[in-house]
Design brief:
The complex is a heterodimer of chains A (about 350) and B (about 180).
Chain A (H helix, E strand, L loop, with lengths): L22 H26 L14 H14 L17 H24 L12 H24 L11 H28 L8 H30 L4 H9 L4 H25 L4 H24 L7 H33 L1
Chain B lengths: L3 E5 L9 H11 L10 E5 L4 E5 L8 H5 L5 E3 L6 E3 L9 H5 L6 E3 L4 E3 L9 H5 L5 E5 L5 H15 L21
Antiparallel strand pairs in B: 1-8, 2-3, 4-5, 6-7
The chains are: A mainly alpha (about 350), B alpha+beta (about 180).
Chain lengths: ~350, ~180
């Protein structure tokens, strides 16, 4: 980012990444995406009839990470007691819309989780509207996954974020993180209750699906970075910051090495030795670490575009110096001609 | 109804930062340029200084993204203002403004921006070089038009408006043909 030497007008102070949003927002979008993704995939697994020996609450815990993420976002506010005012502008603010989406999702998924827990507490009550509540949770779970990208995309002055491809990246990553978190929870249940479901063909199919999700996530990320590099504004500077700048360790180390290559290596080992639950846990944890690094990298690489006034100063400077440069050029030429003569 | 806007001219600004000082004194009763609602950006290497303040955009991004409606357009003055008692401090307005204008006040812990001093901006009043002016929006670029007209007149040899020498009245300058 040290471009001052190249161009005296462009003040390098203005090309530093934004610092208004930090790790709290990154963790919020990671946890909300993971919670929404795990709930949506849990419902789909229930429909497909996977893991019939598992109790329903194992699939419906998505509200817990979403609540943690929302809590982090509230803690990030400078005026925390006023956090309920967040819902006042749903017409145009994605923060307001997101707050509402997350509230509905948390209520619906908490209700579904609570009702599914009742039979294990010895209470057998048939509640007729539960499929509807689960359906609402499903729709708002998808909404929570979309919200994570839409919130970041709503900042139009950051070139890296102002694209619909960011939504695709975050949704793909939410599916990947949700599936890996679901694998981790199922593994935990199996270990606690001495089951061997972690070595079943269903679990292998889930791990294989996780690898597909992770690969799709990286492909979408690559397309996103390519188009942002070619876009106008500071998108290219953000991409360079990710690939070869200060955030290269987060990108290459966190997203690619730990989040992808290491996860693939552990999953291959798991396929060879399915009886070792540690390999499954390491696969999930490394993939989740990669998803968190993805959010952190994208948030911290956001460089704000040059303001119109800065562009104006740039034009002013070059208009003024153009004549001087021509004179210098002409002068040098004349001098050389004189020397030749 | 036409409204007044703050117009800055980087060609005239000397970077004295008196506007920052007077703004903080007016709003907080103490000289603290760090809390000023106008900031002077400096290009020391080329000698340009630019006072940056709210542009009062027609389609203000800060009002769109504010979740608490603290940043809104005042219905009476039609100015974009931030209500400090409603701001939740999410900093979304700061990050989304293309001019980078709302600032975060570390004492109040809310976003703040120029409130035009209730209709009498102190920065414009204090600016000795007239780099900051508070004028009608329609007249904002009039000074520049006048300067350009003077340049054209000088090029044509008329020496400005009302001065027709050395040409004759009604004569068209050969450069304009």
């Amino acid at each position: 980012l040290d471009i001052r030497q190249i161009n005296p007008v462009i003040n390098s102070r203005f090309f530093k990444p934004q610092h208004e949003w930090g790790w709290q927002v990154a963790c919020d979008v990671f946890l909300c995406g993971m919670g929404g993704g795990s709930y949506v995939l849990g419902i789909i697994l229930g429909w497909l009839g996977y893991f019939t020996y598992l109790p329903r609450p194992v699939f419906l815990w998505g509200f817990i990470p979403v609540a943690m993420g929302s809590g982090l976002l509230v803690l990030k506010l400078s005026q925390k007691p006023r956090f309920l005012r967040t819902i006042l502008n749903p017409r145009s603010s994605w923060l307001s819309r997101g707050f509402m989406i997350l509230m509905v999702f948390m209520l619906a998924s908490f209700a579904a989780f609570g009702v599914s827990l009742l039979p294990y507490l010895g209470i057998n009550i048939k509640i007729p509207f539960m499929p509807v509540v689960e359906g609402i949770g499903f729709i708002f779970g998808l909404g929570a996954m979309l919200y994570t990208g839409a919130l970041i995309k709503s900042v139009k002055s950051v070139g890296l974020w102002n694209t619909n491809l960011l939504l695709a990246v975050f949704v793909a990553s939410a599916f990947s993180a949700g599936l890996m978190a679901l694998i981790l929870v199922i593994l935990g249940y199996d270990l606690i209750f001495s089951q061997t479901g972690y070595a079943s063909p269903e679990m292998k199919a889930m791990v294989a699906a996780g690898l597909v999700f992770m690969t799709v996530e990286r492909i979408v990320l690559g397309v996103f970075l390519y188009f942002r590099y070619r876009a106008e504004g500071q998108g290219s500077r953000s991409v360079m910051l990710l690939l070869s700048g200060r955030l290269k360790y987060v990108f290459w180390g966190g997203i690619m090495a730990v989040g992808y290559l290491l996860a693939i290596a552990f999953s291959v080992l798991y396929f060879v030795f399915p009886g070792v639950p540690l390999l499954l846990a390491l696969t999930s944890l490394s993939a989740l670490a990669g998803c968190l690094c993805l959010r952190l990298a994208i948030i911290y690489a956001g460089v704000k575009d040059q303001t119109p006034l800065q562009k104006y100063i740039e034009v002013l400077y070059f208009l003024r110096t153009q004549d001087r440069r021509l004179d210098e050029l002409f002068g040098e030429k004349t001098q050389s001609e004189e020397e030749t003569a | 109804m036409s409204q007044k806007v703050l117009v800055v001219d980087p060609e005239k600004c000397t970077g004295c930062r008196k506007c920052e000082m007077i703004c903080s004194v007016f709003h907080y009763g103490a000289s603290d340029p760090g809390r000023s609602l106008i900031r002077v950006i400096k290009w020391e290497s080329i000698g340009y200084y630019l006072p940056v303040t709210c542009q009062n955009c027609d389609k203000a991004f800060c009002t769109e993204v504010c979740p608490a409606k603290a940043c809104h357009r005042d219905p009476e003055s039609q100015k974009v203002v931030i209500d400090k008692d409603k701001c939740i401090g999410c900093k979304t307005c700061i990050i989304t403004c293309p001019f980078g204008v709302p600032f975060f006040d570390k004492v109040l812990r809310v976003s703040v921006k120029c409130d035009f001093c209730g209709g009498d901006p102190q920065c414009a009043a204090a600016c000795e070089t007239r780099a900051i002016r508070y004028v009608e929006a329609e007249m904002a670029d009039m000074a520049r038009k006048n300067e350009y007209a003077a340049i054209l007149a000088a090029m044509s040899g008329y020496g400005g408006f009302g001065n027709t020498t050395p040409g004759k009245a009604g004569e068209v300058n050969p450069r304009w043909r």
